[in-house]
Amino acid sequence: MSSTSTASMVDVELQPGRPPLLRAEATGGAAGWAAAHRDALRAVVAEHGCVLVRGLGLRDAAETGAVFSKLATGLMTEKEVFAPRRTYSDGVYSSTKWPPNQPMCMHHELSYTLEFPGLMMFACLSAPTDGGATAVADAPTVLDALPAELTQRFEREGWLLTRSYNDEIGASVAEAFGTEDRAAVERYCRANAIAFEWQPDGGLRTRQRRSAVVSHPVTGRRCWFNQIAFLNEWTMAPEVREYLMDVYGADGLPFNTRFGNGDPIGEDVVEQLNSVYEAHTAREPWQAGDLMLVDNIRTAHSREPFEGPREVLVALADPVRLTDCSPTVEVTAS
């Protein structure tokens, strides 16, 4: 069915199990269309949490960057990445480098930082032959669907992210912090409530505690906002987890998540989180030229396994501070 919102005044196709779809006719060029429809697109995102725009015919990084700039209030430089990206231009990145056969399960981008994007933008320049959708899930709906006892514990305690940086897997210290200078890394950690410990081999281990539930800064709606499942050891493919545990040990995994008090999160909890996400997932296969806008606080996103070449560019936009989202736990390093 279609829905013309009085807020957006554009025709949006709404179908169960699929993200809202808007068909564009960019006869004057994608950037011009984006500039003309900026307010309408942002109103659709405010109403529905996301929108997939089809018909822009985005072809390259320069054109995509121009569209991103027209739609955003401000583009962000990514910090604390968990896996590397390619930088095309200021604020325009490749998708995270992640094995094509491994899913990137539902998460909210940079939910473990003190300043994160309020808006995510994705542009598909080359669609895979199979799979690879950027799927979405509504965070307030997910929160309501999870067991109250579990969400209440996470509200009380928050969640803990532990990271172990090395030069073999995941993002390096330089990729995550933008520098190899130890003093600069330490300054960043202290300023951003991250506990750190340098290892004898030169590696770095960090811990940071964050809220698992936040309030949307505009609507006030409570959202399940974190990367608890995605960055947990039990979301990894079994053979990958076993290899990493064997090589690096339980404390040396490139990333892992725990309850806010430090207790391990069991496989059953992670399976429960991912199953609730799956029950509320909307997906639409990418077509070359597509654009997708996602409210990063209200809407989780994922990347499904794929085959064939896939080029999706990403921008992190409209920075929001955690302190403006009514965090439920005090920001601490651990």
SSE map:
Elements: E1 2-4, E2 11-13, E3 21-23, H1 30-48, E4 50-54, H2 61-71, E5 87-89, E6 92-94, E7 104-107, E8 115-126, E9 130-131, E10 136-138, H3 139-145, H4 148-157, E11 159-165, H5 173-177, H6 182-191, E12 195-198, E13 204-210, E14 213-215, E15 222-224, H7 238-248, E16 255-259, H8 267-279, E17 281-282, E18 291-295, E19 299-303, E20 306-307, E21 311-321
Parallel strand pairs: 3-4
Antiparallel strand pairs: 1-2, 4-18, 5-6, 6-21, 7-19, 8-18, 8-21, 9-20, 10-17, 10-19, 11-13, 11-16, 12-13, 14-15
Strand order of the largest sheet: 3-4-18-8-21-6-5
How would the global form be characterised?
A: globular
- Contiguous low-pLDDT stretches (5 residues minimum) are 1-8
Text of the CATH class of the largest domain: Alpha Beta
| Class inferred from helices and paired strands | alpha+beta
> How much is the average pLDDT?
93
Q: End-to-end distance, in Å?
A: 48 Å
Strand content: 25-35%
Give a quick account of the main beta sheet: strands, pairing sense, barrel closure: 7 strands, mixed
Structure report:
- This protein is of the alpha+beta class.
- It is 26% helix and 28% strand.
- The protein has helices spanning 30-48, 61-71, 139-145, 148-157, 173-177, 182-191, 238-248, 267-279; strands spanning 2-4, 11-13, 21-23, 50-54, 87-89, 92-94, 104-107, 115-126, 130-131, 136-138, 159-165, 195-198, 204-210, 213-215, 222-224, 255-259, 281-282, 291-295, 299-303, 306-307, 311-321.
- The strands form six sheets. Strands 3-4-18-8-21-6-5 form a seven-stranded mixed sheet, with helices on one face. A four-stranded antiparallel sheet has the order 7-19-10-17.
- The longest helix is centred in the first third of the chain and has 19 residues, at 30-48.
- One of its GO terms (biological process) is antibiotic biosynthetic process.
- Keywords: Antibiotic biosynthesis, Iron, Oxidoreductase.
- InterPro entries: AlphaKG_dependent_hydroxylases, TauD-like_sf, TauD/TfdA-like.
